[in-house]
């Protein structure tokens, strides 16, 4: 697949998550609630997560922001549901490295739709948009530990 076709596919994945967000809403009886915003662009997120026995059993978000911010929140919630908190934090670390343009060893790691955000590394002003939901998830898990 050529670079242009791959780039187009990634844009389509991002727009799909933006227009049809997964896990948008609130976790009833959520054990974690985190509100964060990006004051430079106005993105904001309200993340609720349920963590039981060290495992993320549910995660939902609400908020406002650009397509990258909201698509990233959708992708993040999909990725962490079912993960233990340690693995969710590790995934966040890998995502952060990818979004900063660093090489990641992904031989046995399937990032799924999250890979569509790797091009954000070319736009430093958008990195905070892409990482907002991930930082909220990290904050919530770390505060609970």
UniProtKB/TrEMBL annotation:
Name of the protein: Fe-S cluster assembly sulfur transfer protein SufU
Record-linked InterPro entries: NIF_FeS_clus_asmbl_NifU_N
CDD domains linked to this entry: IscU_like
NCBIfam families linked to this entry: SUF_scaf_2
Residue intervals of the NIF system FeS cluster assembly NifU N-terminal domain: 10-129
Organism: Siminovitchia sediminis
Record-linked PANTHER family: IRON-SULFUR CLUSTER ASSEMBLY ENZYME NIFU HOMOLOG (PTHR10093)
């Amino acid at each position: 697949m050529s670079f242009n076709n791959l780039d187009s596919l990634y844009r389509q994945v991002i727009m799909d998550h933006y227009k049809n967000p997964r896990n948008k809403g609130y976790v009833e009886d959520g054990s974690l609630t985190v509100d964060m915003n990006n004051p430079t662009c106005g993105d904001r997120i309200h993340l609720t997560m349920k963590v039981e026995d060290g495992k993320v059993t549910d995660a939902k978000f609400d908020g406002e922001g650009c397509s990258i911010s909201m698509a990233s929140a959708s992708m993040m919630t999909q990725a962490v549901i079912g993960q233990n908190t340690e693995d969710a934090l590790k995934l966040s670390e890998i995502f952060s490295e990818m979004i900063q343009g660093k090489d990641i060893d992904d031989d046995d790691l399937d990032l799924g739709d999250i890979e569509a955000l790797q091009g954000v590394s070319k736009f430093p002003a958008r990195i905070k948009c892409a990482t907002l939901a991930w930082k909220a998830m990290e904050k919530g898990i770390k505060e609970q530990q």
